[in-house]
């Protein structure tokens, strides 16, 4: 499939173009484009080498001695690297451990306990299902009421909506920075400020932001945040998530899942739990060392590329997809379900079609890997380190041909 000169020129001028070669190339001759990196990023070549070295050296040669030679501190040292490269956060406030679900539970449960006498949590009904489940679970455990915001599925939560439900009874506001369906970028600083004025704390889900959108958690006054590492950080399937706790809260924060790794003196094997100082108290069980290898390598690539350059390319890629959606897809019943303003849009573009599930299957069968979100949404993920402009163009051309055919057949 030919690509216009203007698209090829975008690739030639792309300052991040060489990063594509630092990822494992898919062994699939039928693949046209991988546009699902917002669900699972591609594997860096360096990760394969690092994992092999772990098996032969750290694990294979040093054996259990590797725990005292660095492994014990990896959740914190790698957390600090992640914070510097992607979160806009000083060291000592970030740890990599557990799944996103467990991290969110720890933060939300601990944050609610820091506001005794307040009995409400603010959440988004359209947030990722796990977030809603965790919110309801914590509310049920503590006897709290959830004040649900009904956000626009093609948009997201606005400061005005938050302001309408905040009261002196609000303990915690918990939302996603980038909406998983629409890629809407919530006004995180404004909402955090609103919550603080009401005396509430904030817990932010950064899963679709970290590694694709510049963040400034310290500057914005964020209290707590969590996010996964297997999307734009390319850390691998099931790689551990991270937790951010603002430094001023650490001494008073009590996370609910006590484990030996978060104990002040873990090798004392003492019967009584005493939380460790600092971010180590956020840990529970034994760190997932193999997963942490992937996080370290993914973070290193993002740090080298620079989050501002990554964001700039994400804007260009999504603008291209929006333009082609308007030109090629809209006449055939495809509707844009992401913000038009690139300043309010993350690194994916969502479109909808009445035949969304079947169309998604046909796209994947034709070599365009996207994902479907019920009932009718198709997400086009643009990962700046691995997606070229030509790849995105070819994928949209396949999309155009499929919807044309579907309309003729209909």
From TrEMBL:
<keyword id="KW-0808">Transferase</keyword>
<keyword id="KW-0378">Hydrolase</keyword>
<keyword id="KW-0662">Pyridine nucleotide biosynthesis</keyword>
<comment type="function">
    <text>Catalyzes the cleavage of L-kynurenine (L-Kyn) and L-3-hydroxykynurenine (L-3OHKyn) into anthranilic acid (AA) and 3-hydroxyanthranilic acid (3-OHAA), respectively.</text>
</comment>
<feature type="binding site">
    <location>
        <position position="260"/>
    </location>
    <ligand>
        <name>pyridoxal 5'-phosphate</name>
    </ligand>
</feature>
<keyword id="KW-0032">Aminotransferase</keyword>
<dbReference type="Pfam" id="PF22580">
    <property type="entry name" value="KYNU_C"/>
</dbReference>
<comment type="similarity">
    <text>Belongs to the kynureninase family.</text>
</comment>
<dbReference type="InterPro" id="IPR010111">
    <property type="entry name" value="Kynureninase"/>
</dbReference>
<feature type="binding site">
    <location>
        <position position="286"/>
    </location>
    <ligand>
        <name>pyridoxal 5'-phosphate</name>
    </ligand>
</feature>
<comment type="pathway">
    <text>Amino-acid degradation; L-kynurenine degradation; L-alanine and anthranilate from L-kynurenine: step 1/1.</text>
</comment>
<protein>
    <recommendedName>
        <fullName>Kynureninase</fullName>
        <ecNumber>3.7.1.3</ecNumber>
    </recommendedName>
</protein>
<dbReference type="InterPro" id="IPR015422">
    <property type="entry name" value="PyrdxlP-dep_Trfase_small"/>
</dbReference>
<dbReference type="GO" id="GO:0008483">
    <property type="term" value="F:transaminase activity"/>
</dbReference>
<feature type="binding site">
    <location>
        <position position="101"/>
    </location>
    <ligand>
        <name>pyridoxal 5'-phosphate</name>
    </ligand>
</feature>
<comment type="subunit">
    <text>Homodimer.</text>
</comment>
<feature type="binding site">
    <location>
        <position position="230"/>
    </location>
    <ligand>
        <name>pyridoxal 5'-phosphate</name>
    </ligand>
</feature>
<feature type="binding site">
    <location>
        <position position="208"/>
    </location>
    <ligand>
        <name>pyridoxal 5'-phosphate</name>
    </ligand>
</feature>
<dbReference type="InterPro" id="IPR015424">
    <property type="entry name" value="PyrdxlP-dep_Trfase"/>
</dbReference>
<feature type="binding site">
    <location>
        <position position="205"/>
    </location>
    <ligand>
        <name>pyridoxal 5'-phosphate</name>
    </ligand>
</feature>
<comment type="pathway">
    <text>Cofactor biosynthesis; NAD(+) biosynthesis; quinolinate from L-kynurenine: step 2/3.</text>
</comment>
<feature type="modified residue" description="N6-(pyridoxal phosphate)lysine">
    <location>
        <position position="231"/>
    </location>
</feature>
<feature type="binding site">
    <location>
        <position position="100"/>
    </location>
    <ligand>
        <name>pyridoxal 5'-phosphate</name>
    </ligand>
</feature>
<feature type="binding site">
    <location>
        <begin position="128"/>
        <end position="131"/>
    </location>
    <ligand>
        <name>pyridoxal 5'-phosphate</name>
    </ligand>
</feature>
<dbReference type="InterPro" id="IPR015421">
    <property type="entry name" value="PyrdxlP-dep_Trfase_major"/>
</dbReference>
<keyword id="KW-0663">Pyridoxal phosphate</keyword>
